[in-house]
Design a protein that fits this description.
Blueprint (H helix, E strand, L loop, with lengths): L5 H8 L9 E5 L5 H8 L3 E6 L12 E5 L13 E7 L8 H11 E10 L13 E2 L7 E2 L2 H5 L3 E8 L5 H4 L3 E11 H6 L1
Parallel strand pairs: 1-2, 1-4, 2-3, 4-5, 6-7
Antiparallel strand pairs: 5-9, 8-9
C-alpha cells in the first residue's frame, strides 16, 4: 500500500463526520492509492476510472469499476453519499459537464482537487485555474457559482516543502449538499 500524501490527507479530513453512510464513489481513482486507505478505515469504496489500472488489488470493502464521468449509466451505483474526484477535471475539455455529473452522483458531499495554474505542468492538462481567471487561466471561483445552491469551501493544499518557494499547490473544493444556502436564505 502506497503512503498517503498531504492531498490525500486533506481529502480524508474533508469527509463528513456524522450523518453519512460510509460509502464512497471515487471518480478517476487511478491506481487507488487513497482507496485502499479508505477501505481500511471502514468505508465501502467504489473506485472508478476509464481504464483498468495495472496494479489494482481487490480487497474487502473496495472494488474497481470501469466508468466514464460523461456516462452516468456506466457507474456501479447511481449515487453515493460521498463522491471524490481528485486530479481529474484538469484533464477534461468538457469539465463543466463532468462537474454537473459529479453533482448528480453526490448525495451529501463532493470532494474535488485540481492543480493551481500549471503547478504540475502535465502535458495532458487542458484546464488551468487560478484566483483571478486571467489569460489562459479560469477563475477558481466559478466553482462557487456552478455548485450553487450548496455550501462550498475552496482551500489551498501545498503538497511538498518546496511548494512554498515555487508557488505550487492544489485547490481542495468541498461541496456539501446538506447545506442548501438558497433555501436557508429564504427562511
Amino acid at each position: 500500500m502506497k503512503p498517503l500524501d498531504i492531498r490525500d490527507i486533506s481529502i480524508i479530513d474533508a469527509l463528513p463526520v456524522y450523518d453519512c453512510k460510509k460509502v464512497i464513489l471515487n471518480v478517476g481513482c487511478g491506481e487507488g492509492r487513497i482507496d485502499y486507505h479508505l477501505a481500511r478505515m471502514g468505508y465501502r469504496v467504489y473506485g472508478t476510472d476509464i481504464k483498468q489500472p495495472d496494479a489494482w488489488e481487490e480487497i474487502e470493502q473496495l472494488s474497481f469499476h470501469i466508468a466514464n464521468v460523461f456516462d452516468l449509466a456506466s457507474f456501479p451505483v447511481s449515487s453515493a453519499p460521498i463522491v471524490i474526484s481528485s486530479q481529474v477535471l484538469e484533464h477534461l475539455l468538457e469539465y463543466r459537464n463532468a462537474l454537473r455529473n459529479l453533482l448528480r452522483l453526490t448525495e451529501i458531499r463532493l470532494i474535488i482537487t485540481i492543480p493551481f495554474e500549471k503547478s504540475f505542468n502535465d502535458r495532458e492538462h487542458c484546464n488551468f485555474w487560478n484566483d483571478r481567471g486571467s489569460g489562459e487561466f479560469k477563475d477558481i471561483h466559478e466553482f462557487e457559482a456552478f455548485c450553487a445552491p450548496y455550501a462550498i469551501a475552496i482551500s489551498r493544499i501545498r503538497t511538498k516543502p518546496q511548494d512554498m518557494t515555487t508557488n505550487k499547490y492544489d485547490y481542495l473544493i468541498v461541496v456539501d449538499k446538506r447545506q442548501d444556502i438558497v433555501k436557508r436564505a429564504r427562511r
